[in-house]
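Cross-check.
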Amino acid sequence: MGSLVVGGLVFLCLSMATSIGLIVRARLPNHHLNAESKDVIRLATAVVGTLSALALGLLIASAKSTYDNAEVEMRTAAARVLLLDRVMAQYGPETDKARQLLRELIAKRLSRGWTAETTDEPSAKALGEYQDIEAVQADLRSLAPKDAAQRSLQARALEVSGMVAETHWLLVESGKEGLPWAFLAVLVCWLALLFATFGLQAPTNPTVLSILLVCALSVAGAIFLISDMANPYVGLVHVSDAPLQSAIERLGKP
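Predicted model, tokenized:
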């Protein structure tokens, strides 16, 4: 589900909860909303408000950590690709085919995106990216080193290519983690309860209603950011592919 859709649904849910509170307020006897009753409502909702704030803070921290980790992974992957290309260049012209395959792999990644769904699936006649890096490794294994220096470079290239392959499989395995939806659903229920009590106590004038709608929009915006950052390779707030763009410009150079 898209982050904008999630944020929009949360806004609708909170707006409906506020409306329900306003409707119930109009139908309750006056003594149900006297000063003593409102004090009890405030005390009860303070507990839910505290829990909601803690849960929202945890989700924001988790989403930010996911985004930061993805950014580090992108830079690390680009650095490893460049290192692999330079090691193969030092080996000699025998690695030209493997270097070309590596460049094609990065070009494919840039054209198809950096997500678990696009990176592990064959597209038309194109191979999956794991097959591309395995082809690079196969070419490296087929090399016949002439001296100790080339043997060392071959071993290093195989080691780094293994790290590139590992990055791919880590992305595939972690690509479906996303948000803890059950946790998010409970949080939205708590927030809806809070906004219903706001409507229950609020006088029906345009200023109060406008403030409640702005608050609902602000909370929905926070949920949108959480959902978007939890999927850091897609959406409006996504990890930049600038490190890969920079890497592909350097690949294949002498």
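The first helix runs from residue 3 to 27. The chain has a mean pLDDT of 84. Passed to J.P. for a second look.
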